[in-house]
């Protein structure tokens, strides 16, 4: 994993609108890139700042180093391109030191170039609508001093390094430019992503949380959402009931025959006796026939049987009269 060392100069005592350290801290707290961001603050003193910078580089062995400072008169994010070997401090540092007309490192080159991709950083900031500009040199103050020490320290390392100066967070003069620390942090984010060769990606909106319960439930309690319950119609789910046969109780009682109905020619009178004179209805089955009636639910009622011709009275004819089936079954017999 790549590691970026982001160092920021702390504000001088009594300085207003110095948001470099705040912007670096915001970036480190909100960074979600593939690289590791190590944010460190430098005391605003010539000797102490150089010592802390060298110690941080030796400890973390970063793949890129960026120094961040606030420039009160800056109107945009300024990408410094040249560190000058000269200390000519306009104001004293936090320890009261104010070097004048002195080389930073005696006998060292007069200037050292940044190894950050200056032009690419400018284009990336412009593409995001952030004010940015290139600067030939960083002046001769504390920020330039740290810049020169950094470039000389990493001259043999071959890692990208340089100085970025930010506008103040509060105007230093009437009509001056001021940018919030959050905007400055976004500018630093763009710079780090460009140095690492990463494309800037807007953070994806959080996905809506899936409802844990069914909002349309009508029960007095809420049911967890699950797979829909398979339902079937009542007609499909109800078991088929076998149709119960209709029972018809047979009766052997004689029925009254209509006088207009003809007699059944298929029932001859008993042998040896004349036909009866009163109508008799004989069912199509009898107790001696061995046949059992078929019970059907939708069977129509049998038609009334034709009555036999009435037989003459035995006393009138003098012949022996035999009892009929109806008389035998009903017990009505005079003999």
From TrEMBL:
GO terms for molecular function: pyroglutamyl-peptidase activity. GO terms for cellular component: cytosol. This is Pyrrolidone-carboxylate peptidase. GO terms for biological process: proteolysis. Belongs to the peptidase C15 family. InterPro entries: Peptidase_C15, Peptidase_C15-like, Peptidase_C15-like_sf. Keywords: Cytoplasm, Hydrolase, Protease, Thiol protease.
